[in-house]
From TrEMBL:
Coiled coil: none
InterPro entries: McrC, McrC_bac
Protein known as: 5-methylcytosine-specific restriction endonuclease system specificity protein McrC
EC number: 3.1.21.-
Gene Ontology molecular function: endonuclease activity; hydrolase activity
Organism lineage: Bacteria, Bacillati, Bacillota, Clostridia, Lachnospirales
One Pfam family of this chain: McrBC
Keywords: Endonuclease, Hydrolase, Nuclease
Originating species: Anaerostipes amylophilus
Length: 356
């Protein structure tokens, strides 16, 4: 998919910076201007910078439950344990208490991810050295089994909001780069698998339009089914990737990041049928919501462009609605990527002004 690897990697930095607005802060400027030829180095640089900023604020700490045998009471006495000590003629109290500690899941995820990067041969020495220095402050933090992290159970609140971007980067590294060998050891695979990249691609497009087109309502909204009797038991949720709207004009974009933009059967290239069925269903059900009002609801499949010779570039008029299939070339300088995305808005919404 990459003609110029460094261009794609730097564009992924831009995509990350839209997905995680924290990266747009001045403190990350030196990461943004550096040219990267390996994804490992980009992520290591972001993580090192982010952990450094977090250390200045202080590592997040939370109360951890402990049970220890002590000579003096602390917290609450654990009666079964204390009685057992008495029976064994030990003059000790078994106590249960909470202690404020940095050895919590958020910091454990950071340390575990850094350890993976330090073991990777493609990470440059300067980034490893920087990460090693940061880890001196994590001496009281344990590592965890990477495949055992329950990402969906992680909750952020006011005291740990600054970890949101860091943990997301860690998840991208661990889920996108980690594979298990037969021996049970871990090694880093080539960055990045289709599923993880697809999530980032969707988030980038959504946040780009949200930031630069305030005149539009930009969301990843759900579309209700157009039901005659209101009974929708067991129907799947219609969840859009990107929903752009101004008045009665709507553009629904399904962002697709595949290794192959078309499917091939007996040397014949066709569009991914499920993708086309899905976007058509979204458009017709969304149009139904307007009732008798005049409306223009269009749909677009926006694929990340690959190196394949045949790339989709089609516009169809289906049952009164426009369905288009386009590609976004991520191998171009970012200003040209932005221009491609701007043209999509210009072709569907007249007179919309782009904001910086």
């Amino acid at each position: 998919m990459t003609k110029d690897k460094s261009i794609l990697i730097n564009n992924i930095y831009h995509m990350l910076s839209y997905a995680f607005q924290t990266l747009k802060q001045e403190t990350y400027e030196d990461v943004a201007v550096e040219s990267f030829d390996e994804m490992y180095n980009l992520l290591a640089a972001i993580l090192a910078k982010g952990i450094g900023l977090q250390l200045k604020q202080g590592l997040y700490r939370e109360y951890i439950s402990h049970q220890e045998e002590l000579t003096v009471m602390r917290g609450k006495i654990n009666m079964p344990g204390t009685i057992k000590n008495r029976l064994l003629h030990k003059q000790m109290l078994t106590c249960d208490f909470d202690e404020l500690s940095e050895n919590n899941m958020l910091n454990q995820i950071l340390k575990t991810t850094v350890m993976l990067l330090l073991r990777n041969g493609k990470v440059k020495a300067k980034y490893k050295d920087d990460l090693k220095k940061k880890m001196l402050y994590f001496s009281n933090v344990d590592t965890v089994e990477p495949t055992g992290i329950k990402w969906s159970s992680i909750r952020f609140q006011r005291n740990n909001q600054t970890y949101r971007m860091l943990v997301s980067i860690c998840q991208l590294i661990i889920e996108g780069m980690l594979i298990t060998t037969d021996a049970g050891n871990y090694r880093l695979a080539s960055f990045v698998d289709e599923q993880r990249m697809s999530r980032l691609y969707e988030k980038f497009i959504l946040e780009y339009y949200s930031r630069h087109y305030p005149e539009l309502s930009v969301s990843a909204s759900q579309i209700p089914w157009a039901l005659d009797d209101g009974v929708g038991t067991m129907l799947p949720v219609m969840q859009t990737d990107i929903h752009l709207q101004r008045g009665n004009t709507v553009l629904i974009i399904d962002a697709k990041y595949y290794n192959h933009t078309t499917q091939v059967h007996f040397d014949k290239h066709t569009l991914h049928s499920n993708n086309l069925y899905q976007i058509f269903t979204y458009v017709k059900n969304r149009s139904y919501q307007f009732g008798e009002e005049d409306n223009t609801v269009s749909g677009m499949l926006l694929y990340a462009k690959t190196e394949e010779e045949i790339q989709p570039d089609n516009v169809y008029q289906m049952h009164g609605s426009q369905i288009s299939v386009k590609t976004l070339d991520l191998n171009l300088p970012f200003v040209e990527i932005a221009a491609q995305m701007d043209r999509i808005v210009e072709s569907h919404f007249t007179g919309v002004i782009k904001a910086d």
